[in-house]
Structure formats: C-alpha cells, structure tokens
Amino acid sequence: MNILCPLDSIPDPGAREFRIDGARVFVVRQGGQVFGYVNSCPHVGAPLNLEDDKFLDLFQTSILCANHFALFEIKSGRCTRGPCTGRSLQPFPVEIRDGEVVQKA
Ligand code: FES
To answer: How many CB atoms lie within 10 A of CB 89?
Structure first.
C-alpha cells in the first residue's frame, strides 16, 4: 500500500501534487472524497498547474488547466470546456484508508 498523505493535509476543497516513480500526479479533495489524476493535460500533454498544488478554478468546482484554461469535472476528469473538450485526464486511482490518502493497488 502506497500512502500519499493524511487526508487532512489536503485543503477542502483543494489539491496536492505528488511524484510517484518520477510521474507527476495530483489528488483533489472534496469533503470526504478524493480523486486522483496524472498531471498531464490531454490538450498538449503539459502539466496543468503553474503554481504548486493549484489545480482548481476560481470557484473550486472544476479542475483547471492553467495553460489554455480547459476545465475538467473533478469526479470524472472529463474536459467540459476548452481545447480538449470531451477528452479526459488519465485517472490515478486513490482512496482513503484510516484517514490517509493511499494509491489503490
Ligand atoms: S495544455 Fe491544457 S488546455 Fe492547453
């Protein structure tokens, strides 16, 4: 089991980035739920964030790609607006166990 961090170390709502075996991934928290994705925009493959751990839009209701402002549903990773509409972020499956965010096996 790969423990990433305590759930409480991620703002609610908010996000946090991790490096796993050289790959950049991030986890978004909404209350007691977490959603993980690879930090690569389906538009051109660039990391979504320009600032550390900043992955949400102004309203904290969507994932934002800061490069060309694509928006993605937090729960599904599907792009709802922007140059990659209809495409999806690559999931990085995570879950909460005993108050810790862990990578799903
Ligand atoms: S790189 Fe994400 S919208 Fe262009």
So the answer is: 25
- Opening angle at CA 91, ends 88 and 92, nearest 5: 155
Which residue owns the Cα nearest ligand 1 atom 3? Answer: 68
Q: What is the pTM of this model?
A: 0.97
Range of the domain at 66: 2-103
Dist CA 77 CA 36 (whole Å): 9
Q: Report pLDDT digits (tens) over 30-64.
A: 999 999 999 999 999 999 999 999 999 999 999 99
For position 94, which CATH number holds? 2.102.10.10
Q: How is residue 30 annotated by DSSP?
A: E
Q: How many domains are there within the chain?
A: 1
Which ligand 1 atom is the nearest neighbour of the CA of 41? 2
Which residues, judged by CB distance below 6 Å to any ligand atom, belong to the binding site of ligand 1?
A: 41, 43-44, 46, 65, 67-68, 70, 82-83
- Best CA proximity match to 92, nearest among 37, 17, 14: 37
